[in-house]
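Worked example 4.2. Below are the chains of a multi-component assembly; read each line carefully before continuing.
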Amino acid sequence: MIKRMVETFLHMRLASKLILINLVLIALPLTVTGMVSFSGFSASLQRTVGKYQTDVVRELTANLDTVTSEVNLLSAEPYQSPELLKYLEKRRQPGSPATYEERSLLDNFTRKIALNGRVDVIGVSLFSLQGDSYVAFTDSPGSFYQPRIPDQSWYEAASRSGKGSFIGPHEVVSENGVSYLVFSVVRQIRSLENGRTLAFLKIDVDYNNVKDRISLLNGSKEKIITITDRNGGMVYQTDPEPELDGIIRGLSGLGTVTAGSGQTSKLIAYYTSPLTGWTTVQSVPLRVLLTDTVKVRYIVIGIGVLCLVLATVLSVWMSLWVTKPISLLRNSMKKVEKGKFDEVIPIRSRDEVGQLGHTFNVMVSRLSDLTYKLYESELREKVAKISSLQSQINPHFLYNTLGSISMYAEIGGSREVVDMTHHLSGLLRYSIGNDNSDATLEQELGHVKGYLSIQNIRFEERLSYEFGIPAELLPYGMLRLSLQPLVENAIIHGLEHGRGDVHISIAAARKDDMLLVTVADNGLGMTEQLLQALRVKLDHAPLPDGPGGNGLVNVHRRIVLRFGYRYGLKIESRVRVGTRVIMKLPLLQAANPSRGES
Amino acid sequence: MNYLRALHPRKWMAMFIIAVFITGCGSSEPSVQREDAVSPNPLRITFWTSFSGGDISFMNELVNRYNKENPDGVTVMLKNNKSDDYYTKLSTAIVTEEGPDVAIVHASKFAQFVPAGFLDTIDHSADDAGVKWDQFNPNILGRTLVEGQHYAIPLDTHFGVLFYNKRILTEAGLLKEGEDLQLAPGEKAFMDFLQKIQQQVPPDVAPLAVPDVRIDTYWLWWTLYSQQKNGGPMYTQDGRRAQIDMGAARKALDLEVTLFNRKLIPSGITDASQLFAKGKAATIFLGVWITGSYEHVNGLDFGVIPFPQIYDKPGSWGDSHTLAFPKKEHTDPNKRAAAVKFANWVAHQGSVWAQAGHIPAVVSEVEADAFQSMEYRKDYASAANDVQYFPSHPRQGYVNDALTTEFEKLWHGKQTEEQLLSNMQPLINGIIGDMEP
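Applying the procedure described above to all two chains together yields the following structure tokens:
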């Protein structure tokens, strides 16, 4: 699977590869970074909000505790008064009248607590375990009484510890019959000498002290503050919140809880005062706290998408920018491969690709030069060879000799010899003539006719031929001596190697911008294999050195060399049907074709 | 190298891509700071002491060292208190649940603090903290045991000894150069020794310095009283009534009165320790805790011997510092464990604590070279076994306070020796009379 993916990747276009890599390199880290940083941000924001909320309740609790700790300190007052401790340690009979000193001791003590100047004390009660208890409200004089201490609601909590024990809001009625809403602290007073419990001191403080402080601190209507005592009892609540009652009553310690879900979910922060054991709970709708997160989420996503789009566009553009000159180079190379040496790449930059293009251009032009030079030198060599051959034969001597033969034949009455010598002389004149210029179709045909006349005499009725040349094609140019080898080829293969008769038809036609000259025979034909070998030979075999045997190859090469690969010979053949050679030539208006040597 | 070359470029490419992925992913990790809602709360334990002078600096040194060295991350918060009101403060703090985690409590306080429920037993935590009770001096350890239960880790014992100024005694011809003081037992030898000093030294030099204010003369009386065969007890077996051997009490007080009358102890000394430090006293009866301070007084050439045996047996007033653990409504077991561990550690730092002058309660600390090589300490270390503690009585503190006042009255002419002696038992009975059975 992975192997196949890698394989696919490796075979992709360069531009696609680059785009893919760029996208992976840009988009992936961008997406991951965005996602991680956003989730990190939103988590840290939630944490911060949670922490902030707990700080708020802590603050609130601390504020409340400035009142309660004051009361708490007041409740330890008996330990500052050795006289009072001594009085409390003394065994007294319940109901026995107190002495003046004792009464004034208690009176001074309760007054000192009531007039502390910091908290609004409503009443002070000293529940003595031996002898009478004493209670003093601020609105009435103090008095002795005998309550059953273990029956008091606070007894259990207060007797467990020497700390002040806090009691939530409750009503007390003073001696004057006035009822007050108070919260209280009760402290167990123990002997410093033997640790025995001597009494309980209860200080009642105006509940408004608590209420005012909280309502002052709570600004928002969305936030609801609740204070519960150790047992989950309600001490205070700014607004009723019945749906969260169950949760709130169970909280203690320090922390946050999320209650509910969706739009209605609330963040509940709570803190239990170590002093009073009261838990301050504040609940705030989460949506109020997290408005910022939503905003930031959209911004992060927006920026992310924008960056992604930008990065994609940029990477596509860049990949194309890098690979385009390379594709151009590749296309040009393909053309050069097919032989088009006139290909030039436009050079737009001086970077590596530009240099490559430049080098390519130089290389192609050199290659073109070299190819040309090669062919030229080949040609020169041929021409030199022909010239040397020509120079070896003295044409005038041949012509004169042929003239003499013809004369003697005429005198002898041999008409055939006269004709043959006449044709031979024409052939020689056309072939050996020093005229290297192009010939016309007409001239070539004349040459072929002369050649055929001679061959006709040789093979008599075995050879028959016909011409199908439209007159308007006759003036078109051809390579000199290019048609005769085709006919010769047909005669050699049809008559010299075969036994039956041969009919050769020579035709010409114009097709688009091409001149097609066809030489067809009804000779032996070739097998498919032979034909294929011949076709290969046409294009690739080394140019034959000597004359003969390679007429077709020679002609084909000359045409290709002269006019290009579009032109040349095309051979079709079928066994026992015949062979057909088509010469493709450009339409050359031979304006002034030489007529050969006259 | 060949291996590298063998890698195909495509493989390099693939590796590069993978590498970019890895680093890319790595670098995209956001720098979010983790905020632990509950940071690991280092354990803090509070430690109250009531030291003065040299003691507190040595204890400070120990606490600082413990805070730095202990591997548990425990921080000990030392609070030193004025010794006069220490026990009132400590007991108030305990009954109001504001007490420290560990506090210095004198062994003599256990008779009051344990029945009052101010202290916790530590048998259980001590095992966990690795406290080995057999390492402690049994004489000292016995004071912290109530009804077979351990209530504290003994730190030291300290007691009254006799410091002497070598220069003055040499000048008086009572000491040869380079020698230590040797005092024969017995009342006569002691008196002769002081009288010889008195004859030889200038009048502004005290033969024996004991302040006639505060508790010192009462300590001297208790030392003399408890050295006698019949001396020692102050109460009946059940502790409900005073029972002093008046013969022995009188004998001891007689000697003190004589010393004052003959000006062998000059009157009007308020700061005896300073007097000795300045070279204005030939000898002084004082607790061992001053040793550390005297060592650092320039030009003070002094020696120290256990308080001489004047009567039937050796002995001197003394007490022990212990590290005790105030009772609380909710004791955090971790804090308690840490406190016990700390206390046990402090008890084993004898070489530091002994610099103050105390005799460590851990036996091996006394036997250690570090202690034995310390000057002076070894001269009185043996006396730790003869320490005469005050009787174990819940109201001993009140009795001591009352008797101290009585002694001050005597020295300042507010009452006679007879009056003091006849008032002694009624006074004690008055203090302990209303005690619950």
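Take a moment to check your reading of the output against the notes. The interface with chain A takes residues 10, 14, 17, 20-21, 24-25, 27-30, 32-33, 35, 37, 88, 91-92, 94-97, 112, 115-118, 329, 394-395, 436 of chain B (CB under 8 Å). Confidence is low (pLDDT under 50) at residues 1-7, 9-39 of chain B.
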